[in-house]
Design brief:
The protein is mainly α and about 280 residues long. The chain has nine helices and six strands. It has helices at about 1-10, 15-30, 45-55, 75-85, 100-105, 125-130, 150-160, 165-205, 255-260, and strands at about 60-65, 90-95, 110-115, 115-120, 215, 250. A two-stranded parallel sheet has the order 1-2.
């Protein structure tokens, strides 16, 4: 029954409707007693009937049968042809066969083809039929098939279970890849954190110190030497030393400054290792 249901599964038919139509199709081909059997428990003729039921279950307008009796014995072939003959009463059945006896016994129209060329046609289309207005021809609209998410998930899970070995190997290989990526990311993150910590510990030995009192900048003093022994008459630039050329700054610590340091939060930002004062 699952084999017959597959066509409806791909078309998005609901589960209850699938089972109902599958049972009916199997009944039409005489397999009601074999619904729960597996394919390897069926004969060749029964398998062929399952294929016919699968073709009928979606109620198509046209059925294409390619050598439906090619691998069957004569008795079973007759049974299959009788089923197709019954189907042809309500649908168009196009069958390809090399058995001319079957073709003549069961077909309404026979077209003989040799090397891709039509040799004969037992019921050729008349010229006036070809000139029929297009408005009289039936217009077919093809339905868009869509499988539900639940059906797709169920089919995928069943497929995984039928190929356990391949599934396990694939899962193992995939897990190795995922673990490898996770290890690389972990090592990268851990190394970055370690370097940040090491830098912080190292730089804490070279603190930024603020000292009270007058601080002179490290700007280089201009040179006082000159090659002139007397004032020249032309315009020149003289080197000059003056207190104003040296930058000075005075740090004054008051009680308010010390109170501010005392009240600094105990949880320091990452860029600060420690704060101390005397």
């Amino acid at each position: 029954m699952q084999n017959v249901e597959i066509a409806m599964t791909l078309s998005g038919v609901k589960t209850s409707e699938r089972k109902k139509r599958a049972r009916q199709a199997l009944k039409e081909v005489g397999l009601s007693a074999h619904i729960n059997k597996k394919p390897n428990q069926l004969s060749g003729g029964q398998m062929q009937r399952v294929a016919i039921a699968r073709a009928l279950v979606n109620n198509p307008d046209i059925i294409l049968a390619d050598e439906p009796t090619g691998a069957l014995d004569s008795h079973t072939s007759e049974q299959i042809m009788e089923i197709l003959k019954g189907v042809s009463k309500t649908r168009l059945v196009i069958m390809v066969t090399h058995n001319m006896e079957q073709a003549e016994a069961y077909s309404d129209r026979i077209i003989r083809i040799l090397d891709g060329q039509i040799i004969s046609d037992s019921y050729p289309i008349e010229e006036e039929q070809l000139l029929e207005p297009a408005s009289k021809l039936e217009k077919f609209q093809f339905k868009r098939t869509s499988m539900s998410l639940r059906s797709a998930t169920s089919l995928s899970f069943k497929n995984l279970l039928t190929k356990r070995g391949r599934t396990l190997v694939t899962a193992f290989a995939g897990s190795i890849g995922i673990i490898g990526v996770a290890l690389v990311l972990a090592l990268s993150n851990g190394l970055s954190n370690y370097l940040d910590s090491m830098q912080s510990d190292t730089l804490s030995g070279f603190p930024i110190s603020i000292t009270a009192g007058k601080i002179e900048s490290t700007i280089e003093r201009p040179s006082t030497s000159t090659q002139y022994t007397e004032f020249p008459s032309r315009d020149v630039i003289y080197p000059l030393t003056n207190e104003t050329t040296i930058l000075n700054h005075t740090n004054v610590f008051t009680e308010a400054s010390l109170d501010y340091v005392k009240k600094l939060p105990s949880e320091l930002p990452e860029s600060v290792n420690n704060i101390s004062y005397n």
